[in-house]
Amino acid sequence: MNAHDPAPVPPPGCPAHGSGARVPLHGPEFAADPQAYYEYLRHYGAAAPVELAPGVEATLVTDYTAALQLLQDSGSFRKDARRWRAFNEGKVGPDSPVAPLLAYRPNCMFADGADHLRLRQAVTDSMARVDTRRLSRSTEQISRYLIAQFAARGSADLLGDYAKQLPLFVFNELFGCPADIGDRVLFGISGMFDGVNAEKATEVLFQAVGELVALKREKPGDDVTSWLMRHEAGLDDEEMVHQLALLLGAGAEPLRNLIGNTLHRLLTHERYAREGGLIDEALDDTLWENPPMSNYAPHYPAADTEFAGQQLQAGDLVLVSFAAANTGPALRASRQAGSNRAHLAWSAGPHACPSKEPARHITVTAIEHLLNELPDVALAVPEDSLAWRPGPFNRALATLPARFTPVRSVRRTEPRPAPAAEQEKAAAPARPAERAGMWSQFLNWLTR
What does the DSSP 8-state code read for residue 159? Predict the structure, then answer.
């Protein structure tokens, strides 16, 4: 920091200024204005000391160049969360609110070296087999179904009624979930991320995915689960369960937020309404300025080191702020002069998002179909009254109330046969749905 620069002013609710305390990335103040916090953090340099939850310390990389260096240096920085020193020393307990997204699981996100290459290749190759036309058809059918649930009302929460549900439904279809298993997958993922009985929700999700693996071992189909199972990497049942839980959970929540944040941008920036047809541009602007995962990519130094001006010990938790890196002064200038897709919203390096193209396609298709069905949709409340969900990782609205001219009947295509997984549902053990059978209701609607 230049000696002539004015002293940085801490954002509201931040106790760090002048106290030596870490900057908190939790609570309503951070959720309301995270950019004020990132601006303050930049005065520490390329990385800063933060607190993710009470008692959970981390170093947050806020500079684009430093973030790329970290993400691409798999020799100096490791992903295996069993290295997390504070967790191993009992300073962070398994009941911490951030533990579910940071604690080790045997999947490709927490793997290094040869283990990571094998698991990652299986995931990447399987996701690459998703046909764009099939993805469009599934997204449009699910969109049509969800819109039909609220179109006649003339109002909806576009987050809870649409953006939150659509990714879960699309993933159920792509992964070949029969009705009973799909209902419990929806319940599990929603509960984990909503914090509603998260322990029970996690148990339900993993049990449902375990049953899906057993079903596909017996009767494989034309779906991501079966492709992953048949991959030459030879994943065993435990590896299958953990890769699928990662893809379903870690894919659905950011995608929900991406759809919601892009809709928010379209409804609150007059330029898009004035010029029209700018969904792709609104999506890119959202990924730059309001990415769905704002702070994540946990890494651990393999040895004591100095990085980005911070002294780190082996096993310290280091995160990347995609939101801060994307909006830094240097990158802002280069963005104006060049590419519109050099952001870090999909991360970078060997652990970059393996599903960014399907995610982008689903988002554009879902928003395009919604705007076609409800062309006069508008925000139903003042923009400054919208609340953002607290937490250090996600950038997500709590609700997105909208109004539109009521539509008594939403156009539908002719019903098609149920997915192969639904036709095989007799092979899966029957059990009551944990939630009101949302996936079952969709399959019934689809085929009636």
Answer: I
pLDDT bracket for residue 372 (50, 70, 90): very high
Q: Do the Cβ atoms of 317 and 40 come closer than 8 Å? A: no
Q: Is residue 121 part of a domain?
A: yes
> Nearest to residue 292, comparing CAs of 257, 266, 253?
257
- Domain residues for the domain of 135 are 23-176+221-413
- Which residues are CB-contacts of 252 (< 8 A; sequence separation ≥ 6)? 167, 168, 171, 189
How long is the chain?
A: 448
Report d(CA 269, CA 246) in Å as an integer: 34
Whether residue 420 has pLDDT greater than 50 = no
State how far the Cα of 120 lies from the Cα of 132, in Å rounded to an integer. 21
Number of domains in the chain: 1
DSSP character at residue 447: H
Q: In the structure, what pLDDT confidence band is assigned to residue 241 with cuts at 50, 70 and 90?
A: very high
Q: Where are the beta strands (DSSP E) in 336-397?
A: 378-379
Q: Which two tokens stand for residue 141?
A: 């059918």
Based on its alpha-carbon atoms, the radius of gyration of the chain, rounded to whole angstroms, reads 22
pTM: 0.86
For residue 228, the Cα-to-chain-centroid distance in whole angstroms is 21
Distance CA 352, CA 346 (A): 6
323 touches 38 (CB < 8 A): yes
Model pLDDT for residues 69-100, shown as the tens digit of each residue:
999 999 999 999 999 999 999 999 988 888 88
Asked if the structure places residue 285 within a domain, the reply is yes
Residue 411 Cα distances to 149, 170, 375, angstroms: 13, 19, 14
Residues 12, 391: Cα–Cα separation, whole Å = 16
Q: Which residue has the tokens 């004035």?
A: 274
Q: Do strands 318-321 and 56-61 pair parallel, antiparallel, or not at all (unpaired)?
A: parallel
Residue 185 placed within a domain? no
Cα 400 to chain center, whole Å? Answer: 18
Tell me if 427 is assigned to some domain.
Answer: no
Q: Kindly report the average pLDDT of the chain as a whole number.
A: 86
Measure the CA–CA gap between 53 and 427, rounded to whole angstroms.
44
CATH of the domain at 324: 1.10.630.10
CA angle 78, 81, 83 (to 5 degrees): 70
